[in-house]
Design brief:
The chain has one domain. The protein contains three helices and two strands; from the N terminus they run H-H-E-H-E. The protein starts with 5 loop residues before the first helix and ends with a strand.
């Protein structure tokens, strides 16, 4: 097995791998011990204990990101005639 780097070993010393951390503490540790020298992406998986095959237990939701996705939203409408004018009036960026 490959040997781990010095920074990795130093950061691993701050984490107890036999313990489950509460969410707030885990996020704090992630911010305090960055693995790379840039702002990293954090992925999270959660076990909700629901049966998604049952309609009454379906999990749906939406999250508004604090800084958006960084990409501007553009609206393209395929239309002709009066519908083209309506789309432009409604705020479409491209119509044709």
């Amino acid at each position: 097995m490959a040997q781990r780097g010095k920074r990795y070993r130093e950061q691993l010393a701050h984490i107890d791998r036999s313990r489950e951390y509460p969410l707030e503490e885990a996020v704090r540790l992630l911010k305090e011990l960055p693995h790379a020298r840039f702002d990293e992406t954090v992925e999270m998986a959660m076990q909700l204990g629901v049966d998604t095959r049952k309609a009454d237990q379906a999990v749906r939701g939406m999250v508004v990101l604090p800084y958006g996705t960084g990409k501007p939203v553009r609206v393209l409408v395929f239309a002709k005639g009066d519908a083209e004018k309506e789309a432009l009036e409604a705020g479409a960026d491209y119509v044709g």
